[in-house]
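Thread: quick sanity check before group meeting

JM: Hey all, I'm pulling together slides for Thursday and realized we never actually wrote out the predicted structure for the chain we discussed last week. Dropping the sequence here so it's in one place. If anyone has concerns about the input, flag it before I start.
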Amino acid sequence: MPARATLPSPALLLESPAFLLAAVGGLLGLNFPLGKLAAAAGVPAVLWAALINGSAAVVLGALALARGTAMPLRARHLRYFAVTAVISYALPNAVLLSAIPHLGSGLTAMFYTLSPALTVVLAALARLSRPARLELFGIAVGFVGALLVASGRGEVGRPAAIGWVIAALLIPMSLACGNVYRSLDWPEDADPLWLAVGSNAAATIVLLSWAAVGGELAAAERLAAVPWAVLAQVLASPVMFVLFFRLQRHGGPVTLSQIGTVAAAVGVAIGAAVLGERYAVIVWAGVAIIAAGLAMTLLSRWRGDAARRSARR
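JM (edit): ok, ran it. Output follows.
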């Protein structure tokens, strides 16, 4: 009789790059519509970015203390926290949330899909492990889809200003640098939970300092105008970041960079279904091509996961 198929255990899922990629990308995709709601309520982008990182630092910090997680503060850890905070969180999040009111949540989300191609180039230069051919092909297909989406210039009747399109390119550039840096400088025997706590806490300090210099701290009271968006963001961020660092460890920088492709699809779908954003046919064609590229990437990762499980037996 043929062997009965069994579902992977939760422990295996938390080590599966394919599962982690889908989960982190899906949670990241919520940032775009939630950020648009916050901007519409007058919440400054830098404060909303601080909420994303600050909620993750507080919730995961409490979890780390409850678990008795080792929390070293050697020079290497502090460097890792600081660099990760700036290039992976503070800079891209601030640009992202500033661009959403001008580009729409869907188009802004698409800039995340450019980071895989940039990450591949940087990872090759850094001599990190290369992805499989099918995964590389999926990345290339997703990149073509992203170009089609970007060519649509935003929502129907609201073409995006070219200046904001250019500014938004900082998002994938910064993310790609962060993807490679975190793998290169990963502290030995570091607990992913502690890395998430430290880097998010550092990002929160950077963002709140930025808000203070810009005189935007007083606008924090506007968060009360969008309580459900705040609650959704506070619940989603800690889960996303703890899975994010597991994906960094088990999937590597190139696989991690694919979260933007998942997030972009989620951002466009929610923008159209919930926020009333309307896009041209070329944008939806690009989304379909991105989905095809993502399917190739996930198939490649599932094959790799299956091969590793077989090798352990």
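AS: nice. Residues 1-5 have pLDDT under 50 and may be disordered. The radius of gyration is 19 Å.
JM: adding both to the slides.
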